[in-house]
Design brief:
The chain is an alpha/beta fold and about 325 residues long. It has one domain: Aldolase class I (TIM Barrel), CATH 3.20.20.70. It is built from eleven helices and twelve strands. The strands form two sheets. The protein has an eight-stranded parallel β-barrel with strand order 1-4-5-8-9-10-11-12, surrounded by seven helices. A two-stranded antiparallel ribbon has the order 6-7. Strand 2 and strand 3 form a beta hairpin. Helix 3 runs parallel beside helix 4 and helix 4 crosses helix 5. The two termini are about 30 Å apart. It binds ligand PBG.
Amino acid sequence: MPKRPRRLRANQNIRSLVKETVLTGDDFIYPLFVVEGEGVKKEISSLPGCYHLSLDMLHDEIEELCSLGIRAVLLFGIPDQKDKIGSGAFAEDGIVQKAVRCIKKMNKDILVVTDVCLCEYTSHGHCGRIKNGDVDNDSTLDLIAQTALSHVQAGADMVAPSDMMDGRVAAIRKILDKNKFTNTAIMAYSAKYASAFYGPFREAASSTPQFGDRKTYQMDPANKLEALKEVELDIEEGADIVMVKPALSYLDIINEVKRGCKIPVAAYNVSGEYAMLKAAAKMGWLDEKKAALEMLTSIKRAGADMIITYYAKDVARWMKEDGMYAI
Ligand code: PBG
């Protein structure tokens, strides 16, 4: 008797019944770029549909996210001033610290996660302190820990270190615990690859390294074992959630990490992945909605428990229009 898997694909009702992966608004974390100034809502050219927002414009943005059912944001700050050690990253009145206070004052039920890194704040654009022409690991740890603490003191619900220094999760856990923030979670960018797909983000955040590249701290795209080692170390050091970044070219890594660890896995659907689809859609080469939903579904199917994506708002809107079975 021939086998007939097509029976379970005969119509939408049966397909919905056997669907293994369904995206929901609960899966998404939406990145926000906050800038100094007033009345700024400027579309980011490399990330169409995403904006640089000044503090006074955050209110409407957060309202919109809440009305779309998006429950979490990831904050990035773009300061006016930069210096060698990125002191704006841990300043009490730094842009992210102010944005966190501002969002928390709105009293909206939204989770505020902050990206903890120095690259937007350093004049050289690297993620740590420079010594002898390279990013020095151990003298960067204190700056990263201070940055995380200042975000949490401002009210952040969770911190997400993206610098890739060895030992930073332990340093952050230690300083948070010492300051009685024992309940604040760490989402570690554990397997963060040295990827060309961060290009549009670096334009948005003006964080392109002024010399060299990030290959001495971010991972080699060719490696898998190294990702598993990084994840293991971060968990040992106290990470509550581990992340794989980027997502699309690293679905195998997401899958292995998910199968190999007992804590939630996040995936970062990065700027280049978003920009590729936006550009192709603009040219009329792809059906944007179908392609975006397929992309995000594949990331979830691979094993991501949550997805950081610039598409969060678009997808939430499509879901409102079409219901759950958008794809
Ligand atoms: C900061 C940071 C980067 C991204 C997130 N945090 C850039 C980088 O490492 O160069 C990239 C996000 C994206 O491309 O969407 N270290």
